Amino acid sequence: MPLSGPQLERIVDNALAEDLSWGDITTDALIPSGLEDKAIILARANGVLAGVEVAALVFSRVDPGLKVQLVLEDGARLKPGDVIAVVTGSVASILKAERTALNFLQRLSGIATETARYVEAVKGCKTVICDTRKTTPGLRLLEKYAVRVGGGKNHRHHLGDGVLLKDNHLAVLSKRGIPLAQAVRQAREHAPHALKVEVEVTTPQQAREAAAAGADIVMLDNMSIEEMRQVARELGGKVLLEASGGVTLQTVRSVAETEVDVISVGALTHSARALDISLELAASP
Q1: What is the DSSP letter of 203?
Q2: Which one from 134, 153, 156, 185 is the annotated catalytic residue?
Q3: Residue range 171-229, pLDDT digits in tens
Q4: Has domain 122-270 been given CATH number 3.40.50.300?
Q5: Could you confirm whether 200 is annotated as catalytic?
Q6: CATH class name, domain 6-118+273-281
Q7: Residue in 99, 148, 208, 253 annotated catalytic
Q8: What is the pTM of this model?
Q9: Which of 131, 200, 209, 242 does the annotation list as catalytic?
Q10: CB contact at 8 A, 123 and 152
């Protein structure tokens, strides 16, 4: 699992601070400090598991003495009743870590599950399902990881990860008398040589202009199926074609069949429903 180190620890510690900065009044009042037992983390719905190592880190940051046995790995296909992990040790510590650990598991598994649905919907097509930067502030590292677990690919991780001329960039430049073709050339001149240049367009004519100006990737924003098919016929194989804007699980297959190379879907991260996962603990008398 490519999630480790100080950045992940900061994310987990910030999440724990939301819950524990003022203590756990209920647990401290009712649960004996020396009481130990076992808790089981269970799936309550069908889906794709993501975030087990993050959840394990939550428990260890609350109490290094807790032992977490991971029964399933990220990417596992879940069904109701599946045991995901077993946590053994201080009952008080388990209760203090429970909600934060489940929040990560449910959120990331929900994203992986939603991504897997989109990937399955375009099965047999050449098109790749990709995410966007429409992520929860502070959680991009984890949410983009969950997309990969679900079988999708990552678009830019941050604004320095690629050149993307969007509509607002082009609108500002147009007011200054700089046409699309010149904007593409200017971006390429100033960007690091290893970065690709992508241009967001809304019409087939703009797509032609961007490709002629030397764009590596042309993003077809909110185009109709017929317009995307037309662009793919003309420019397919010459530039990478990405479809974006308003793509749903119901329409993604039709978009993929236009022969675009990539479909970017903001809903993978901004609208994924948390997967139902619970923790069950029955303290011994």
Answers
A1: S
A2: 134
A3: 999 999 999 999 999 998 888 888 899 999 999 999 999 999 999 999 999 999 999 99
A4: no
A5: yes
A6: alpha beta
A7: 99
A8: 0.94
A9: 200
A10: no
